[in-house]
Fold GIY-YIG domain-containing protein.
Amino acid sequence: MTPLETTMYYAYVLQSKKDGKWYTGATSDLRKRLSEHNANLVSSTKGRSPLEIIYFEACLNEHDAFVREKYLKSGMGKRYLKNRLKRFLSLTGRVHSVRGRLPSATATSNGGFVALMTVIVISVILLTVAIGLNQAGFLTRSQILDAEYKERSSALAEACVDTALLRFAEDSGYTGPETINNIGSNTGTCQIRPVKKDFPVSGQTTIETQAFYNEAVTDLSIVIDTVSLTILSWLEVPQF
């Protein structure tokens, strides 16, 4: 059996467009399983269609997929999903009131919180160095802002990768491009560039995203296995 014929298994999370509830499952065929859910052939989601995939994880065997499904249903897994999906849901606009198994999803991105915590840590380090060297002018407002802007642009670029992967999982014909502007109260821009199928080699797909926040830019290039959707490489490149 060649690598491209290897069967992959997936733990996934669906969201009902009807009532906003989330449902967790595992399967070896993500697209087929989504069709079954929307055709009301699965008892746990019967009458809840239309549904869409908002999160999935690829596993090498069935056992690992069911272990991940069980984890995603646990209290710790729910907290992990809530934090993971906050930013993604705010970017795509696919936000509903969640009254099911998981805590409520909001349109508030945690990207700003992560950036703020990063700035605080950087500030403490720089302040310690400045005091030790008796160089009070070492710490400047512009340096702190540059670090924050870069962190936010990185968060936007990563969220665009998540968006592109889900688009591709739902529709193998997805080719981009797509632009997302003005996320929440932010002024950042996130772009999914045209998807490159059978690149760099046959059976692989290259996804490129670019994000701008003020003057900070982040460019990401991700290569995935076209069949299994496994990420083969993840690189930040100088600029497209």
The domain at 3-92 is CATH 3.40.1440 (GIY-YIG endonuclease). The beta strands are 9-16, 22-27, 51-59, 178-181, 189-192, 196-197, 204-213, 216-225, 231-237.
